[in-house]
Structure formats: structure tokens, C-alpha cells
Amino acid sequence: xxxxxxxVSVLRRTLTLSPPRNPPRAAGRRRGQQRQQHxxxxxxxxxxxxxxxxxxxxxxxxPLCPQDSLGCGLRTCYRYLNQTSRSFAxxxxxxxxxxxxxxxxxxxxxxxxxxxxxxMSIPLDVKVPMLQEFHSHLYQPDWKFTESKEKDRQVxxxxxxxxxxxxxxxxxxxxxxxxxxxxxxxxxxxxxxxxVDSQNEWDKYCHYVAGLVGIGxxxxxxxxxxxDSIVGQDTDLANSMGLFLQKTNIIRDYLEDxxxxxxxxxxxxxxxxxxxxxxxxxxxxxxxxxxxxxxxITNALHHVPDVITYLSRxxxxxxxxxxxxxxxxxxxxxxxxxxxxxxxxGVVKIRKGQAVTLMMDATNIQAVKAIMYQYVEEIYxxxxxxxxxxxxxxxxxxSIRAMSLPGSPMASRHHYSPIYLSCAMLLAxxxxxxxxxxxxxxxxxxxxxxx
Length: 451
Description:
Helix content: 55-70%
Distance between the termini: 23 Å
Mean pLDDT: 82
Strand content: under 5%
Number of helices: 20
């Protein structure tokens, strides 16, 4: 099958790594319709890593995007943001200063691009050039697309409002958003009818739909001067941030994607275990299916050292929270999935309480390292001696241990300043509200019985 795009999935799913038992299908995904796809024992504990830069807390008085202080266009953009992604909207609005608006517009531009890609009613001969040239519409005040059938078509129908607010941003923000939009559109077009065969192609696909998001966000952080220039310049680390999240989504969502007719696991890996990817869900193949799963999780874990290095460079508290929370959710999800047959039978999810605890804890680099340490230890304890990837899994866990806390890994997670705790509590409250809303939406979806 051809590969399609989850270009903004890493954005809209940052706080949804544990879906409800029967999650609603995303816009444009229709039952029965084949759509374009996207999506050795370690030694003694290492010495403590070098001290990380001190995080600068957000001002206590910084409001969460007071709507009455915004112009009409920005108010409309934030309304679209809340309509298209409750989880991401909550975290964006906790960002400091003008960065908040830049990231909001960045999200909406990519959401509009993703909506074009998702729309099955647009012929390929129209869609391909539309994706490739979409970035040019940012500078065309009157451009809009009114023929979309997608649920989130308002971001295309009212694109003039979004593009106007884009042009109101500082040029440094405009340049980043336009460049990432261009590269992502080209990547989407490339993978519209292309299979993800090799592991290199898997990395390339994840780069287009998630790594570019990480690179773009990092450049925005640096452009805002809330973070040092190295954060935006080191594209390899920023790319790994996106790839780690996207690979986690792809690994966890095996069964859901199979039921929807989508395939994202790289053929180079799964073909060593089955003739068809769908065969892994058959009960008689469960042993080799779990071995395939473990190999892909081991692949994803190779990004964790980059994630730790990236987060250790961040100084601003709101940016740190924005970046760290999805990463700790991802490592917890991989730990839950590792060597777990349930991936091929239903949904593997982390509990709401566990998710809230992670959000409250992940407020500084030492706490994040402790969390990473905890969950790779959990994976290590589950490595089967007969697993074909066991040596590689042990090796990558050893490298993660070397970057994490020695001794008692949980000790540093309980010493926060009041501002850290207030930020964590705020995020926890927002996240709990979101998870509750998501559960309610799921119930409504099941009752409706349709898209």
C-alpha cells in the first residue's frame, strides 16, 4: 500500500499517547475505504552526567493567552486551534510571549496542509502540485480552498485569516513556517503513493511528518530568543524529537491502522517475521509478532539519547514543559508495549493517573532523566533471552542509562520550586480536563456510529 501522511499527528497527539478503548477515527479515515496512508547486561551505574542549564521559569503573572487582548484575526485562529486540537491548544497557550502566537499559526498552517492531504475527494493530479506549492499561499491574501470535504475544512475555507496572521508575525517566524510548510508539502507528495519498505525510508517518512515539526518548533524557540540559537541549529536532535514520538504512535497503533487499511511498519523489518503485515495479528503468529514489535521498539529507543540531550539545552520553563511531556508519555507507552501481545489484540494504553503523574513530574531535566531511567529499566526487566533483538535492546538501554541518573533514579523528582510545581499542576489540570473530554467524545462517537 502507498504511504500517506500524519503530518500534524505529532502535534495533535502530543497528549494523547494513551487513547480510549475505541478511539474516534481521524478526519478523512473511512471504514472500508482504502485511503492514502501515513503514518549484554549493562555494567555498573554510570557517573552523574554534567549539570544541565538552569531552566528559566515562566513569569507568575503570564496569562494563558487572554482572548480579550487579541485582535479579531488572532481570536479566530485560537478558536480554530481549540476546535482542531484540544490537547495541543492547551499546551500552546501555556507558552510565553509572542512564541505562543507563532506556534499557534505554525500549527494551523500545517493543519491546513494536512487537511489537503487527507481529503480523498481531491484527485492526485490536483493534490500533488497543491501540496508542493501550498507554502506560496501564505503570501496570497485571498487564497482559500472551499471544495474540501474534511471535518476541519474551516482552516482551508478561512485560510485568508490564517495567512493574514502569518504575515503579521515577525519575519524570523514567517521564514521558519514557510520553509517547513514547503518541505513538508514536498514530502507528503512524495509519499502519497510510495511504500515504506526500508528502515531508512521509515526514518525519511517520519522525518517528513514529524521530524520537520520538531525542527520547525526548535527554530521558532530560538527565533523567540527564549532558547539559545543551538536549539534551532541542531536539526539532528530536533528531528529525533519528532521521530521518537511518531515511531511510538506507529508502533502502538498497529491494530487500529490494520483495521483502517493503513500500514506504517517498515517492510524490511516485518517481512522477516511474516508474509504479510496483517498476519502478525493472527493468534498462531503471536510469538513472531512480539519479536517484530520488540525490534521496532528497540529502533525507536535509539532516539532517546538525542531526546535527553535536546531537553538538557532548554532554559525556558514553558518551552521545557511543551517539549518534555510528550516525550515522557512516549517512553511510558513503549514500556507498556514492549513484549506485549495486547498490541496485536487491542489497545495498549497508559492510565489517566499515570499520565497526570508524568505531566506533573516532567518539569526539569533531572526529573525527565529519572523517568527515562525508570521506563528503560522496566523494558530491560522484560527482555526475553530468546528474543532476536535482545542484545541490541540491552545495548541501547545501556546508552540511555549512561545519560540518566545513577543510584536511586527517583530521588530528584520531588524537589521542585513553587513555580515548577505551579506549572506542573496547571498542565496536569489541563491534561486531566482534556482526557475527560476525550473520553466523553469517544462515547458520543460510539453512539453516533459514524465518522
